[in-house]
Design goal:
Layout (H helix, E strand, L loop, with lengths): L25 H13 L5 H14 L4 H15 L6 H8 L5
Length: 95
Amino acid sequence: MYRRMSEADSNDPDPEIDRINLRISRSFLDVVDETWRERGFNSRSEFIRYALRDSVNHPEGAGVWKDIAISEAQFDEGDGISSDDIKAKYGSDDE
């Protein structure tokens, strides 16, 4: 859920920018932070905007995001999907 911030309560110079809140586990946030740094993004926000744009522009990849969300929930419950299973499902050779 988000709320549109008025110019009066925003420090952002652009009134067209909305701020959202995102709740994710600390362990997943650690992975996100490591990833944006490794990939050369300037900030967490820049990386998340890129990931969201990519998901909207390439909806065929939405299954990956769904699997990530499911995996995060399973990980938090002590059960998860191995990286080998994910690589096999999506055909990735990356190490």
